[in-house]
Amino acid sequence: MLPEDMFRILRSVGEECFREKPRPVCYDGFAPSERMHIAQAINVNTSAGCKVKIWIADRFAQSNNKMGRDLKKIQTVDCYMIEIWKSVDMDLTDNKVEFLWSPEEINSRSHEYWPQVMDIV
Fold first, then answer.
1. Domain 23-120 coded CATH 3.40.50.620
2. CA–CA separation, 43 vs 26, rounded Å?
3. Where does residue 12 rank: exposed (0-12), middle (13-18), buried (19+ CB within 10 A)?
4. How far is Cα 32 from Cα 60, in angstroms, rounded to an integer?
5. pLDDT digits over 63-97, tens only?
6. Cβ-based neighbour number of residue 64 at 10 Å
7. Cβ–Cβ under 8 Å, residues 61 and 101
8. Domain locations along the chain
9. Are 54 and 92 in contact (CB under 8 A)?
């Protein structure tokens, strides 16, 4: 398939999505670590008018032994990273970005989450 044909198909899908939902949702995520992810601010600022939901994978950081598996320390680093993104002009206006904390999201739907985890395992 030629690049022009691929572009035409992708563009038609994108146009259909925006017709159906004028402000679609796109997702990004990070597991806190010792390194800053400044590129995510760029991703949010170039998200083509989508609402952006960023998953904060603090439980996954805990399971990967980040910050000594201390969830409070991990969440402190999460908050620090969010503040850094704000300082590099992550566009948080107009309710454009929502941060989703994995423990809260998992616990709020644990009756759905854990059976799916067990199916995958």
1. yes
2. 10
3. exposed
4. 9
5. 888 889 998 999 898 888 888 878 877 777 777 78
6. 11
7. no
8. 23-120
9. no
Tokens at 76, concatenated: 């402190």
Say how many residues make up the chain: 121
CA distances, 42 to each of 7, 70, 115 (Å): 23, 29, 36
Q: How far is Cα 82 from Cα 38, in angstroms, rounded to an integer? A: 10
Which residue in this structure is represented by tokens 């739907």? 109
In single-letter form, the type of residue at position 28 comes to D
Residues 16-47 pLDDT 10s: 777 777 777 888 888 777 666 666 666 666 66
Tell which residue, 70, 69, 64, has the closest CA to residue 30. 64
- Encode the chain in three state secondary structure: CCHHHHHHHHHHHHHHHHHHCCCCEEEEEECCCCCCCCHHHHHHHCCCCCEEEEEECHHHHHHCCHHHHCHHHHHHHHHHHHHHHHHCCCCCHHHCEEEEEHHHHHHHCHHHHHHHHHHHC
